[in-house]
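Researcher: Please predict.
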Amino acid sequence: MSDDRKLTTREADFSAWYNELVLRAELADYSPVRGCMVIRPNGYGIWERMQRALDTMFKATGHENAYFPLFIPESFLHKEAEHVEGFAPEAAVVTHGGGEKLAEPLVVRPTSETIIYSMYAKWVQSYRDLPIKINQWANVVRWEMRTRLFLRTLEFLWQEGHTAHTTHDEAEEETRLILATYRQFMEEWMAMPVVTGLKTQAEKFAGALRTYSCEAMMQDNKALQAGTSHNLGQNFARAFELQFQSESGTMEFAWNTSWGVSTRLVGALVMTHGDDNGLRTPPRLAPIEAVIVPIWKSDEERARVVEAANRLREAVAGWNGRGDDRIRVRVDAREGIKPGAKYYEWELRGVPVRIELGPRDLEKNACVAARRDRREKVSLSLDGVAPSIAALLDDIQASMLAAARERREANSVREPVTYERFREIMDGPGAFVYAGWNGDPEVEARVKAETKATIRCLPDAEFRSPTPPARCLVTGEPARHEVIWARAY
């Protein structure tokens, strides 16, 4: 890294800190096309790890991968009224191809419900053909006006699952299963705690019966919608005549679900764990979990410590205590760069463990391991060092989740507050504010207009307050629901 200037601090300007960190940790860069990004190897390596983990989880729950076209006939988008109203402003449309005007314009995929359910309608005749449980890994295009690397770009990568079922209850079970799968991934792999719950009608997916979401708190106390799972009801089945003959012989419309997470999760990881020194990557998602930095002053020392560093790398990478998921380790033996500069670079890039190895360490048959999350060092014996590194990585993973959860709870407001106090919180430090709501969409819209805060979700039972709020935050009327209010990305 040639740029060794300090990052803008999170406290000084969280937005500037985020943008600088994404660029300087080499996660992504701006594209020549406005609003698009180039995902660099360090960022794509994290996304690959995310893909691999999620794909395994999807397949374990009976889903298969397929691929559907990038282009969708414009007429398809108009078949489901609420859906087209929700996505038309963001749609990119192709009107010419091969030098000629197209007979029907093609929409560049903003999401794939329409084209997928048109295909399901071809494939399904009987209840015996259901359920269909398909996922695809793809890119999508949404013509966003205000973009930010990873969080909101014109084109992004994601997975989108689409299923078809015989009953509402089966579809609802699927919707909740995926929500739980997302939560498990976010907490166990990303070390990012989330609150799950139901979206309001104003915030649900366009065309869905109901939407559930995973809501994460970033370090500036704003919410980020990290993943959504939708029970689509029969809306798309009716639009595309996705019918099946039931066991009793009647013709019924299928019940559908859709669900997805995207490269936005890389941005979520940055804003959940990054610090003023750079990125902190949870070990399970780190492309490199440990980097060995040999230290020398003379050519003789260099030969000796580099050889020892390579033996150490082989011992750590070859250890099979984690089965097929071997520890991902690299040796940084570059010449002409001082050890301190290497430390700075790997710290900025978020590698969980840095292993320092010099002549004095070899004399002691030891190495020094520096953990990125706490910036603490520990001396480890070179005998049986691989299990020690693995245990350290496991502890870092658990500690990062615990720290993020503690921070979220410290910045959640559960005691009753006045609407005036609520506005002060939103204009000040921000928070997840648990409060009563009378269920009136006009109240929801008013709060959004006056404070820029939205209802993130009606939290699932395990996240609700021990004593539910009795009164609506805004009107003082009896509360019909407990909801979480926050400003969001």
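Model: The chain has 14 helices and 23 strands.
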